[in-house]
């Protein structure tokens, strides 16, 4: 995302035209197309402020960023990509798209126990994207960049004939050797999860009108999931392994189990649920299947982790102290795979969650 890039951030934004008088026989005027702003001016106006004067971004005047090393810390790097109509709602407000992109990546850093630093951005703008569209997107980046204290470091954009595609590569710092990985759970460890499960999936259904959502809370949870950054210190202190819940609780707990060479048992009776999810659940004819759907729907962006049984109470206290409730919902045992239990019966589905193509 530099002035030298062939695919600049603002290649040919759709021009706007001057207003024309409606009077048929008034003095004839010729509509004058307003030329697109100069690319350098647009970078300066919309993107450079997102760096928040971070020296590593080189004011977006170069074709790379230069990051200083940080003695005593490891650099954690994560990347997510999203496609309109697949990972976010087609026609979604572009400031919301920008925020959702940042928050889903920040969730990955939270699961590692990392402190966010900055990000590189890539956008595929659909043909016909206007300057106003780009300004709206940049505003969303600016607002969440300020909220979560992260800086734009660089990136690139292209124009596409297909749907909008956005991607970000995020960087974070963690004390050397302290990153919480998926690998590391041990036999007997308790499976614990933050917050509530199922709201993201229900929020998508609510958007489609398939689920009641009187206060809009479920849809908000889907559109703008809050990353659990506050839990990073308790995770580093107590978690042996962790992952963020993006693909679905069953799937992501299974990722930890696979990386650790173990089997995980999940008690669906103990799922932490929001009032909106409980309201939906109470209306379902089959409670086991409904809980299984909540646990496999995905888009929760909570943190699931493995905790030594002797540390459960301390971990819960530390998490609550930073405003993040956590609940014990299962156990790691010998074996492999995932076992979803409801009232003691194994009802594990074939599909545990979202599968990436």
Produce a short descriptive summary:
The protein is of the alpha+beta class and about 350 residues long. Helix content is about 30%, strand content about 25%.
Fold topology:
Blueprint: H1 39-47, E1 73-83, H2 94-112, E2 115-126, H3 131-148, E3 151-160, E4 165-175, E5 190-194, H4 199-207, H5 217-223, H6 232-238, E6 239-244, H7 249-260, E7 263-267, H8 275-282, H9 287-296, E8 303-307, H10 312-321, E9 326-333, E10 337-342, E11 345-346
Parallel strand pairs: 2-3, 7-10
Antiparallel strand pairs: 1-4, 2-4, 5-8, 5-9, 6-8, 7-9, 10-11
Helix pairs in contact: 2-3, 4-5, 6-10
Instruction: Compute the number of strand runs.
Output: 11
Helix/strand/pairing category = alpha+beta
Count of helix runs: 10
Query: Which strand order does the major sheet show?
Result: 6-8-5-9-7-10-11
Domain count: the total is 2
Overview of the structural elements:
This protein has ten helices and eleven strands. The chain has two domains: 39-175, 60s Ribosomal Protein L30, Chain: A (2-Layer Sandwich); 190-346, Phosphoribosyl-aminoimidazole Synthetase, Chain A, domain 2. The protein is of the alpha+beta class. The longest helix has 19 residues, at 94-112. The strands form two sheets. The chain has a seven-stranded mixed β-sheet with strand order 6-8-5-9-7-10-11. The protein has a four-stranded mixed β-sheet with strand order 1-4-2-3, with helices on one face. Helix 3 links the parallel strand 2 (115-126) and strand 3 (151-160). Helix 6 (232-238) packs antiparallel against helix 10.
């Amino acid at each position: 995302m530099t002035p030298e890039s062939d695919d600049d951030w603002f290649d040919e934004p759709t021009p706007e035209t001057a207003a024309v008088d409606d009077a048929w026989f008034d003095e004839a005027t010729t509509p004058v197309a307003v030329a697109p702003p100069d690319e350098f001016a647009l970078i300066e106006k919309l993107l450079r402020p997102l760096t928040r004067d971070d020296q590593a971004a080189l004011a977006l005047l170069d074709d790379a960023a230069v990051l200083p090393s940080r003695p005593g810390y490891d650099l954690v790097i994560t990347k997510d990509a999203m496609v309109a109509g697949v990972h976010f709602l087609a026609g979604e407000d572009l400031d919301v798209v920008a925020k959702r992109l940042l928050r889903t990546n920040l969730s990955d850093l939270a699961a590692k126990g990392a402190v966010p630093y900055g990000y590189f951005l890539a956008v595929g703008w659909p043909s016909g994207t206007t300057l106003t569209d780009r300004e709206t997107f940049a505003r969303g980046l600016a607002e969440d960049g300020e909220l979560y204290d992260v800086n734009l470091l660089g990136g690139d954009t292209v124009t596409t004939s297909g749907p909008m595609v956005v991607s970000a590569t995020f960087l974070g710092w963690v004390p050397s050797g302290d990153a919480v990985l998926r690998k590391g759970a041990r036999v007997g460890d308790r499976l614990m999860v933050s917050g509530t499960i199922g709201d993201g999936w229900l929020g998508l259904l609510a958007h489609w009108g398939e689920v009641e959502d009187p206060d809009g809370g479920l849809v908000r949870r889907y559109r703008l999931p809050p990353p659990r950054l506050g839990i990073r210190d308790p995770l580093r202190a107590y978690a042996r392994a962790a992952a963020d819940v993006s693909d679905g609780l069953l799937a992501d707990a299974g990722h930890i189990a696979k990386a650790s060479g173990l089997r995980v048992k999940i008690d669906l009776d103990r799922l932490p649920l929001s009032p909106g999810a409980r309201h939906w659940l109470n209306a379902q004819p089959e409670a086991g299947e409904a809980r299984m759907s909540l646990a496999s729907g995905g888009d929760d962006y909570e943190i699931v982790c493995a905790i030594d049984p002797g540390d459960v109470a301390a971990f819960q206290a530390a998490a609550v102290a930073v405003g993040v409730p956590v609940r014990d919902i299962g156990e790691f045992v010998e074996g492999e795979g995932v076992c979803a239990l409801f009232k003691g019966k194994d009802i594990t589905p074939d599909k545990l969650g979202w599968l990436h193509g």
